[in-house]
Design goal:
21 strands, five-stranded mixed sheet, alpha+beta, 24 helices
Length: 663
């Protein structure tokens, strides 16, 4: 036991390390921080003058047309991007010999693949393609259907159920006028004999109605072998901390959003049959078909294809322009000194709009020390960064969850939208807080069974989120001066015997132990029904101990560690729980249980973590022989061993089970 306590006392964690940053981003930050604003601005102006001249020269060169498919129906869209200058920029970045040039440059002008075995050497790490995967792909080409296939009748019925016929028809007509689609065709007039239909539907995002394509059938004939890594809020915080660490003061930030992101890239015209958009004619109520000239919002290939462009944008910003930028799909975020951020944002937009040919939304361009990014309000106005969600966003989410609970229904498309929204909310908290209660919603998102009715677990998860959004603003503060400093976590050992709870707290030189009786022994047992199995009884006591230890620590941390922890810093300290009961650990990690009581207890545990704004919560396994909390829970005769190891008794520890949050 003493050996395990000694080992855990040596645990150190960091919220941020420069080793976790992408190398070119770290180098860009270091270079930027080492120069004053005027010098950085002058550097960017020199680059803009040079590349603007190269872009003009290359566009007027006789070989310009060789970079594009002259027969592609959307060649005009492809030519908006200056592919020859992209090639030169890749060469300047040192990417001309690693496979990016041949694939990425060619696809910009001739179209990105819709299906097949997709990989992007030089952009993302590549997983090897197994023979079985190749065989599976060949077999799934059977997804192509003929024009009399009964699936089309089923799609027509689904389109009728979806409604919004007029809105979808108007939307498709606009896309035809923009050159994104060809059509409309009747099923019999479609210029391909066999094809894969993808149904157009509407997703409501506030006041915006986004047209999406159900690419499930197309995705069955697609094998993406290149994992995509996206840089989110934590990357922005790490970048800001690195800048402060390298001497940059008075930070500010900028956010830009590319316009019509997926629609800026053309699709391979030889693969149009694999993603034929179908919708209902609002007048005849018959199916109409459209061939897509650009990437479809709803196919797996489009995610990989577009993110190659997104990765190119961030790499060029860092390596060519000296701008510490990061991209999350079509949202681009950058940090700079407050007196340089406006100029940096202008230079970024000029480079990628006037030189490369991409278009950014002027209405969504923002600069400032406090900005919404990826659904989270990011505040870098001081050295203590702040992440939070606005009350408006919390209110909208509560309303959406209320509507789902009232209707007792959640479709897979609704679940997908909710998972995305809650994912952004989670970024305002650390660790895995709330993640367990996204899992049941994500399960519905990918369910192959067409059932919308809520089950007990899904209903519980939605109620947990509703209550969490009511009682917490999901607000996190991060002290930049502490981010790269190794943090000592609070170590909590818990154990229970039949009716006796024991806990030990360790933090730096402070060591305490406590014990109490289980609330099951003193309260109405009907309130805490347990099974007849001994395992269920002991799991009840073990889980009760963890919850009670968490509540006591959060409520009385100033008594436990008066000299070490201030209220405003307590939430930045990780909590490591060591538990010797496998079932308790697994249930808390998963966030749910088939047993209703354990399910309620688990929800209470994570609800406490949210309302206390705990930085990180870890639930670790410890062998019973090494669990120091075994002594106060069942071996009171060995308390002197605890005292010899430096543990002092702390009074006031009681079970939190009777006062458990009912969420």
């Amino acid at each position: 036991m003493a050996e395990h306590v000694l080992l855990t006392s040596q645990i150190r964690t960091t919220q941020y390390s420069e080793r976790d940053m992408e190398p070119d981003l770290l180098k860009c930050v270091q270079t930027y921080a080492g120069k004053p604003t005027a010098q950085n601005s002058a550097f960017r102006q020199c680059r803009l003058i040079y590349w603007a001249d190269r872009a003009k020269t290359l566009r007027n060169d006789n070989s310009f047309g060789e970079y594009y498919d002259e027969h592609h129906p959307a060649r005009a869209i492809a030519e908006r991007i200056n592919v020859p200058v992209v090639e030169e920029i890749l060469h300047a970045m040192g990417a001309a010999t690693n496979g990016v040039k041949n694939e990425f440059v060619h696809r910009l002008g001739f179209g990105f693949p819709v299906v097949d075995d997709l990989r992007e050497e030089g952009v993302f790490d590549v997983r090897p393609l197994s023979r079985s995967a190749k065989k599976e792909f060949i077999e799934t080409k059977a997804a192509l259907i003929h024009k009399q296939h009964p699936l089309l009748r089923s799609l027509r019925r689904q389109c009728i159920r979806d409604g919004n016929w007029k809105e979808i028809a108007d939307q498709l007509q606009i896309e035809v006028e923009k050159g994104w689609l060809q059509g409309p065709y009747t099923v019999h007039d479609l210029p391909v004999d066999h094809f894969i239909p993808i149904r157009r539907f509407i997703v409501v995002q506030g006041e915006k109605h986004r047209g999406c394509d159900n690419g499930r059938a197309t995705n069955k004939v697609t094998r993406v072998h290149t994992p995509i890594s996206l840089l989110g809020i934590d990357n922005a915080i790490a970048t800001a901390a690195s800048m402060i660490e390298h001497g940059v003061e008075h930070l500010s930030q900028a956010v830009l959003d590319q316009s019509d992101a997926y629609k800026s890239l053309i699709a391979d015209s030889t693969q149009q049959r694999y993603a034929v958009v179908v919708a209902l004619n609002a007048t005849t109520q018959e199916l109409e078909c459209y061939l897509s000239n650009v990437l479809c919002f709803g196919t797996e290939s489009a995610v990989l294809d577009y993110n190659c462009l997104s990765r190119f944008v961030t790499a060029a910003a860092r390596r060519i322009m000296g701008i510490p930028a990061a991209g999350y799909f079509d949202d681009f975020h950058m940090l700079a000194r407050a007196d340089d951020i406006e100029g940096m944002a202008e230079d970024f937009q000029f480079f990628f709009s006037n030189i490369i040919g991409l278009i950014f939304k002027d209405a969504k361009k923002r600069t400032g020390q406090v900005l919404p990014y990826l659904g989270v309000l990011v505040d870098v106005s001081s050295s203590v960064f702040s992440l939070s969600i606005t009350e408006e966003r919390a209110s909208k989410l509560r309303g959406a969850i209320d509507a789902i609970l009232d209707e007792d229904s959640l479709s897979s498309s609704q679940a997908a939208k909710l998972v995305g929204q809650l994912g952004f909310v989670q970024q305002s908290m650390s660790g895995s807080i709330g993640r367990a209660f996204v899992h049941p919603i994500r399960t519905r998102q990918y369910s192959k069974v067409n059932v919308a009715k809520l089950g007990a677990r899904l209903r519980d998860a939605l109620r947990w989120w509703k209550e969490a959004l009511c009682h917490s603003r999901f607000h996190r503060q991060i002290d930049a001066s502490l981010l790269s400093t190794p943090r000592t976590p609070i170590i909590i050992y818990t154990d229970a015997s039949m009716g006796q709870l024991g806990v030990c707290f360790c933090y730096k030189s402070h060591r305490y132990y406590a014990s109490t009786h289980s609330a099951v022994n003193v309260a109405n047992r009907d309130r805490f029904p347990v099974g007849n199995k001994d395992e269920e009884n002991i799991q009840l006591y073990e889980t009760e101990t963890v919850i009670s230890a968490q509540h006591f620590l959060n409520a009385h941390h100033e008594l436990l560690f008066p000299e070490e922890i201030l209220d405003d810093l307590f939430s930045n300290i990780p909590q490591y729980y060591f538990i010797d009961n496998v079932c308790t650990q697994a249930t808390l990690v998963k966030g749910h249980s088939e047993n209703r009581l354990f399910n309620d207890m688990t929800k209470s545990f994570w609800f406490e973590a949210v309302t206390a704004k705990t930085a990180d919560v870890w639930l670790e396994r410890v062998e019973s022989a090494h669990n120091i909390a075994d002594l106060p829970s069942r071996q009171l005769g060995r308390i002197r061993e605890l005292e010899r190891m430096g543990f002092a008794y702390i009074p006031g520890f009681t079970s939190s089970l009777p006062h458990m949050h009912e969420v």
